[in-house]
Amino acid sequence: MSATQDYCIVCGCDGPLERKLQETEFVVRGETFCFEVPVIECPSCHGVETADGIDPAELAFAKYRKREGLLTPEQISDLRKQYHLSQKSFATLLGMSEATINRYEGGGLQDRAHDEAIRACANPAIMRDVLTRHGGQLSPRQRQKVEFALAGMPVPPKKGITPSRRRAGARDRTRQTGFREYDYLRYAAVVVWYCQHMRLVTATSSNKLLFYSDFLHFKSEATSLTGSQYRRMQHGPVPTEYGKNQDAMEMDGFVVLKEANYANGNSGIELCSGCNAAELARVLSSRELAVLQRVADEFKNMTPTQISDRSHQETAWKKTADRELIDYLLAADLSLSLPKRAAQ
Questions:
Q1: This prediction's pTM
Q2: Do 183 and 332 touch, CB atoms closer than 8 A?
């Protein structure tokens, strides 16, 4: 057993945490697999989590897949990308949910029927048949990508961000947009920055980080950062088009979505920086990055639930009716402020 400096996600203790090996059992479809995995234990709350990114379930699933001849998560992902499909579009063609494909690519164990349906798509003739029967449910751009892939031709490059994505948010400059026209690239740049600079960014926490970024920038500069509208929802402020934006960011390679399971038994979608994230490096100015840094400093040690709870204390949330758009003028009472040297 050895000591290691780390951070306890259960109680917030900064360590030192104890590292040791622990015997773990995991049952996969009625069969028990045993593993000895490295874990770290908090001496304060005695919470235990696996170390080195090792997930006993993944080890058990990998052994089960190999024995049963099932596709690996990487093979599923590679097959989808072979046709230039997003997880949502691939799921649509197969009659599955986006969450199902996301779970399989993230390490979840697929059932045999789904495995055979996905595997069959490796055959171009079968994929053509699937596209003929279900391609009408895809966007014209997504269907075109599959058709080019089937023809063995490179997909024509996109000329900037498509109009539909530029309009994934409000175009008016009003009190509900922070007097800025919505800008998809700015929105994506904010999310990617947090993915690169914070320990954990989930689908839930990204919405709150965006809210604080936009409203803190408005409080300082009298204009929002992204032009996004926010709606007052049960779990805090949410960008009005967050679902479409999340799909667009994944399709553009700005973020990668990963299903994660946590020690407390909860699960969720984590956002990680994608292969094209570098394209957004110069979108935001140093002044704007100072806003993101202030928000990150405030919430870096909080869980997504704690960040959500904090947003419930903001005047912007309290004084807005349920499901109504939030007025940026309420940013005057935001609990965060920029340091004087950053606001000057």
A1: 0.55
A2: no
